[in-house]
Amino acid sequence: MKKALFITGMLVLLLVVMHVIAPKVYQVERKVVVSSQIDTVFKSLCSLKEQQIWSPWAEMDANMKVEYRGIDGEIGSTTHWIGNEEVGEGEQEIMKIKGNTDIETELRFLKPFESTSIGFFKLKELDNQTEVIWGFRGEHAFPTTIIMLFMDMEKQVGPDFEKGLSKFKAYIEK
């Protein structure tokens, strides 16, 4: 009995230590410069329907079901998707729009696991070009903190952002 209590206590202590040292917040972002006016780029990025055209996740499941609610491009507009195991299920809702420089969305992932993140686009005018920063950020809670000790969000999501921005650049510069 003492041995079982000792082992249980050590496991609990190990979990607590792992949680304490694990990353609690994350942010992944990538940027690209496109040869298009900031107003055109901003209007396109505000459109959840246009985002679907260049989304790196859209091509992972040709049979993904996508539905839109609200007025596309405005605060409160939402897209909901249900896809295969790679894509999962979730929603994205536009929460903030600031001038023609900042868009913030709430990403609610429902499957394969539940989590919420903040997605964002930041734009900066560069003569006849526009710098686009695309990213997302959030916080990990227990027990996800422990899982994140063995996962690198940069490696998991960064390449998808790079691919998406490359597709967006080709799309917006047409």
Q: In total, how many beta strands?
A: 7
Please give the alpha-carbon distance between the first and last residues.
Answer: 71 Å
**Largest sheet entry:** 7 strands, antiparallel
Query: Can you give the helix content as a percent range?
Result: 25-40%
Q: How would you classify the helix and strand content by structural class?
A: alpha+beta
Q: What do we call the CATH topology? A: Alpha-D-Glucose-1,6-Bisphosphate, Chain A, domain 4
- In CATH, the homologous superfamily goes by the name START domain
Question: How big a fraction of the residues is strand?
Answer: 35-45%
pLDDT averaged over residues: 89
Low-confidence stretches: none
> Can you tell me the number of structural domains?
1
The CATH architecture designation is 2-Layer Sandwich
Per DSSP, the total helix count is: 5
| Shape summary | elongated
What is the radius of gyration computed over CA atoms, rounded to a whole number of angstroms? 19 Å
Strand order of the largest sheet: 1-7-6-5-4-3-2
Can you identify the CATH class? Alpha Beta
Protein name: Polyketide cyclase
InterPro entries: START-like_dom_sf (IPR023393)
Textual characterization of the structure:
The structure is a single chain. The protein is of the alpha+beta class. It has helices at 2-21, 38-46, 48-54, 144-147, 153-172; strands at 25-34, 65-69, 78-82, 89-98, 102-111, 115-126, 129-139. The protein has a 7-stranded antiparallel β-sheet. This is Polyketide cyclase. It comes from Ancylomarina euxinus.
